Amino acid sequence: MTAGIYTARILTQPAVEPLTLAELKEHCRVAEDFLGLTEALRGARGLVEHFLGRALISQQWEVAFDTPLCTVFELPMPPIISVDTALSFAEDETSSAFSSSSYVVDGPGGRVWLKQGVDFPTSLRPYRAMVWTYTAGYGAIASAVPRPILHAIKLLAAHLYENREATSRSVAGESGLKEIPFGVRDLLFPYKVVSV
After folding, report:
1. Alpha helices in the chain (DSSP H)
2. Looking at the 3D structure of the chain, how many domains does it have?
3. C-alpha dihedral (39, 44, 47, 50), degrees to nearest 10
4. Is the C or the N end of the chain the one with fewer CB within 10 Å?
5. Is 1 inside a domain boundary?
6. Interatomic CA distance for residues 132 and 76, integer angstroms
7. Which portions of the chain are predicted below pLDDT 50?
8. What pairs with residue 89 in β-bridges?
9. Do 82 and 131 sit in the same domain of this protein?
């Protein structure tokens, strides 16, 4: 059984963007160092991470599960580079650390399994009962990110720079706003996290 209700927050932002400003300027054929390009690059990376449900460049996250009655935890924003801390909290607010020997990490899948025979402390509090702190992403440098994702960020950042307001496109059989341009989705779909 997989843990359900949780809250997640980023603790440490990526130290670098997956693309450099120089790479984006070359793609956009822009010589000047416009603030708009920097913002478009950051915005594109954020949109791509949100769409994929994945961290790209190394970043630290915290996820807190309410009273878990499970042995499998799905940590958001994989891939998981490392689990930094794993704490459970009792009703009296005391915490207990889980040793790394108590669980197995599926880095690419973003799952953590408690090993057989490992039990939770009794009387866990009903909120934020199990808190995981972990580092996620493909790595600390841009070259660790798959090239199709980098290309999608480049296309999306150029689109955001040229179109400073939300845009839409119509496709036969689809309706509503489509804010990620055609082509970008095709590059990203093979990397999208799909919950089962």
Report:
1. 21-28, 35-52, 147-162, 184-188
2. 2
3. -110
4. C
5. no
6. 11
7. 170-173, 175-178
8. 95
9. yes
- Phi and psi (nearest 5°) for 127? -125, 145
Domain extent at residue 185: 18-54+141-191
Q: How does pLDDT run across 148-186, given as a tens digit for each residue? A: 999 999 999 888 887 766 555 544 445 444 456 678 999
Bridge partners for 82 per DSSP: 135
pTM of the model: 0.84
CB burial class (10 A; 0-12, 13-18, 19+) of residue 101?
exposed
- E strands present in the chain: 6-12, 59-65, 72-74, 80-89, 95-97, 103-106, 111-114, 130-136
* Max Cα–Cα distance, the chain, nearest Å: 62
pLDDT of residue 68: 74
Please say whether the beta carbons of 95 and 70 come within 8 A: no
Cα 14 to Cα 45, 53, 55, 76, 173: the distances in Å are 11, 15, 9, 16, 38
